[in-house]
Amino acid sequence: TQVRQLLKATPAEFAGSSRAKFYETYLALVKGSGERAKTTDFQRMCKEGIKACLQEWNELPPVGTPAHIGILHLFQLMVELGDASNIYTSLAATKAENLEAKSGDLKSVLQTWRERLPNNSDPINIWSDLVAWRQHIFKAINDVYVPFITQPQPPQQSTADDSSAGQSDGLKSPNKSKADAKNGRKDADDGKPAAGATNSALTSYAYRGYHEMAWIINRFAHVARLHGLVDVCIGSLTRIYTLPNIEIQEAFLKLREQAKCYYDRPQELQSGLDVISNTNLMYFSRGQKAEFFTLKGQFLAKLGKLDEANHAFATGAQLELNSPKAWAAWGRYNDECFCRNLPDTTGAVNAISCYMQAAGLAKRPRVRRFLARTLWLLSQDDANGSVCAAFDAYNGEMPTWYWIALVPQLLAGLDAPYSRQAQQILLRIAKQYPQALYYALRTAREESLVQRRQQAPAAESGAADPATPSQGPPAPAIDELMPKLKTAHPLLTLSMEAMIDQIVHRLKPCPEEDIYRLAHALLSDGLQQLHQQVS
Fold first, then answer.
1. Which residues of 486-519 are buried (b: 16+ CB within 10 A; e: fewer)?
2. 124-145 and 66-92 helices, crossing angle to 10°
């Protein structure tokens, strides 16, 4: 009633807006304590709200602007109002006998809500508005589902319920203050699972609203941290302590976000390290344990405890050998150690091994930065060739597809100390993705031939300077790669060569363009001669 009075007291321009229509529609949805099915008034208000959104959208320019984001957000809220009406209808018909079936219907809607989120770059106010709206719906779910826990169960389920009673509330986090969270004090029971394999199906269904609350809070905290709002992130995560039951995955995400918040604050690094060190890892999976040890290594490295950090990184990689995050973090640590201790190549050797393991496991475009860093480390090899030997020792899967972006660097590396390694990578690309290499390789071969023709007269006259290094890839390496590519893919190579001939023939410059090119070359040559005479 008070909300309706506030809406009536608002200015006229707000009363007709899409935001006011949303509030009125929500009030129509929740009014009354009896039947909560779709009503005619609710349907009419929904249509009016969508119509108001469309009118505001039509008033905006056709080019996308920041003003469109708010209208899209209101569209999403209006759509979720319809979903909420279905949820209320399901809750009104939920009983102990059909709890499993109704929970299944509810799960499909809530899963859709998890996938329907704003972009991470959208304003934080939009995220906050969405979280506040959904928590009202989750509270309504809790009001209906939680009382089923206290109801007596059939005799055949009593044994299973009694055996899991000790763990059904395992993740009841203590109602700690925000100061305790900032000081990194963490109860040992924070790692216990709330809904796992040992929990009864009834407990899992009954706590669904709390599980969704924990999920959306963690998601909001993650976005707040990306926006640089560390205090908002920590404050949001602290609210998870007030929930009586959350899943083990949400407990892990909460602790990880909390630790990353402390990592961004140099004065609270020790508090973040305490949060990780005091966490009971017994109930977490091996991958989650590996990520915790990786975070611990990052904190220790930032605090200057290098030996302990290296041990933590090694423990994380050993716990989950297939974790690309653990290998990548360990590789960055060794890379930084190498940059601090030049020219000692121990760190470079370890970094090469870690980067290649991470690239082989991740198989995502993000691994290109590891490959680029690998090429740089290869260029810093010592006289003993230890860094190149570490690269050759890698026996895992080679992410050949992501090496394609570095083909120009690999061709230039044919004249570098790591030429043998570059040639091996290029051979892999030639066998698997010949089209990605052929044109660059053909261009490099033509440049090499032109360079050899220019150097031949100078060598015969004795005017060549032996101390002057040659530019471009060496001819023997290019001459070795091209025949192998043609042998592996003869028909494809013939087609590509025919296409190049057609391009050269059809795109041949006209006489005017040739004259302009020759005039430009003569002018450049004349200016160069003039500059030499003046100097």
1. beebeeebeebeeeeeeeeeeeeeeeeeeeeeee
2. 0
Q: Does residue 428 contact residue 400 with C-beta atoms inside 8 Å?
A: yes
- Chain segment 198-212, per-residue pLDDT in tens: 345 566 777 888 999
Task: Find out whether the peptide bond into 343 is cis, omega within 30 degrees of 0.
Answer: yes
Interior angle at CA 379, CA 375 and CA 382, nearest 5 = 135
Specify whether the CB–CB gap between 237 and 181 falls below 8 A.
yes
Inter-CA distances, 51 with 18, 19, 44, 425, Å: 8, 12, 11, 58
User: Please, are residues 258 and 191 in contact by the beta-carbon 8 Å criterion?
Assistant: no
C-alpha to C-alpha distance for 108 and 452, rounded to whole angstroms: 68
Residue 324 and residue 48: Cα distance in Å, rounded? 50
Q: Is the pTM of this model over 0.70?
A: yes
C-alpha atoms less than 13 angstroms from C-alpha of 251 in its C-beta half-sphere: 34
Q: What's the token pair of residue 294?
A: 């990786």
Token couple for 64:
């996308």
Of 85, 70, 74, which Cα lies nearest the Cα of 27? Answer: 85
Residues of the chain with confidence (pLDDT) below 70: 1-16, 32-39, 150-203, 458-475
Long-range contacts of 68-76 (CB under 8 A, 24+ apart): 69/122, 69/123, 69/126, 70/126, 71/18, 73/118, 73/122, 73/126, 73/129, 73/130, 74/18, 74/19, 74/22, 74/49, 75/50, 76/116, 76/118, 76/130
CA distance linking residue 194 with residue 244, whole number of Å: 9
Cα–Cα–Cα angle for 474, 478, 479, rounded to 5 degrees: 115
Amino acid at position 23, single letter: Y
Length of the chain equals 535
Given this model, what pLDDT does residue 40 score?
A: 75
Under DSSP, the state recorded for 406 is G
Integer-rounded Cα Rg, in Å, for the chain is 33
Compute the distance between CA of residue 114 and CA of residue 366 in angstroms, rounded to an integer: 25
Residue 239 CB partners (closer than 8 Å, separation 6+) = 217
